[in-house]
Amino acid sequence: MKFKRINLPVLLALAAAPMFAAGADTPAAASAPATPDLPPAPTGNYVENFDTIYNTLTIQRLGTRVELRARSRRGQFYESVVDVADPLNLILPYSRTVYAAAFFQPEPKRMLIIGLGGAGIHRLFAPSYPDALLQTVELDPKVFELCQSRLDFKPTAKTPVTIMDGRMFVKHDNTKWDWILLDAFRGGYVPAHLKTEEFYRECAARLSDRGVFISNLHEGTELYYADIKTIQAVFPQVVLFNPPGSGNVMAFAVNYASPIITDPDKWADATELSKRFAGHLDLADILKEHIPIPTQTVAAAQVITDDFNPAELLNIIKTNDEAQGR
Question: For residue 323, what are the CA distances in angstroms to 129, 253, 312, 317, 320?
Fold first, then answer.
């Protein structure tokens, strides 16, 4: 009998994921409704810490600004920052850059986000695309609870949240999505089973004909180049944006080789596209964040697969530039 070697992070994730009804085309777990009877938030400014099975979380409120942070062995990282008095103001740079997807698919009817955070992206998407569905998948129920009780997120029938492992949701859901965003950070890293060629192929299979896959990457380690090479192994075209001062690079990828999306001169007009956001976002500014793919370094990187998955090791190996303080 021939056995297939299974990567440990993938095995653990699958073992921890919810089960599905036999023969079901979509996940058996229903989208979670708004959580009733949430504990009230403290008044005034405050700092709270929460330990869950998956995360060590910090909530801090200063005035109307609420931060959700997660701790890993490398320190604390922002999951989301929301101004509850002006929720359409996207504070974290990468959350604005997500909307560069409009250059490639300007009329999303269905968007899937893997990783809820503080639902910052949702605040602008819902009024900008009022007829669209924004489905979110979040592994940690505590994140969903805090998102509602501390960051004032109010899920609706158009913005449902499902508590489930993201890979399992994608595997069992047959919806075709116009935008898929992978943003499932736990502290400074994305779980390894969401970084593989096999998972990216599952996401590619869930895109509509002109759909866009979006991945939030962190530059500065060898994992960054392996991420890009792994995405390129699946998608014929990949475009990168670098939000200023964030350490993030946003990768946008599509299933088709034509029309060409790698030439900014052929993109839709940024001013025209920005009208949908009613002054809250200027895609002309986002356009300036476009960067070339570091072809030489990516060519030397490794493709990450379920069988060969050194994602966590690569995530702690600094690139030469960063190690030398450049």
Answer: 43, 29, 18, 9, 5
Find, among 111, 113, 82, 98, the residue nearest to 184 by Cα. Answer: 113
Q: Are 144 and 116 in contact (CB under 8 A)?
A: yes
pLDDT in tens, 117-173: 999 999 999 999 999 999 999 999 999 999 999 999 999 999 999 999 999 999 999
Tokens of 260: 């060409």
Residues 74, 183, 115, 310, CA torsion sign = negative
For 86, phi and psi rounded to 5 degrees?
-145, 70
Helix H segments across the chain?
A: 8-16, 93-97, 120-128, 141-149, 166-172, 197-205, 222-232, 270-274, 283-287, 295-299, 311-314, 320-323
Torsion of CA 241, 311, 212, 153, to 10 degrees: -90
pTM for this structure? 0.86
Sign of CA dihedral 226, 232, 234, 239: positive
Partners of 47 in beta bridges: 60
Q: What whole-number distance in Å separates Cα of residue 175 and Cα of residue 108?
A: 13
Q: Give CA–CA dist 222/97, Å, rounded.
A: 23
Q: What is the DSSP letter of 300?
A: T
Q: Give the torsion through C-alpha atoms of 134, 138, 144, 150, to 10 deg.
A: -80
Taking Cα atoms as reference points, which of 121, 111, 58 lies closest to residue 89? 121
CA distance 227 to 294: 12
- The answer to whether 20 and 170 are in contact (CB under 8 A) is no
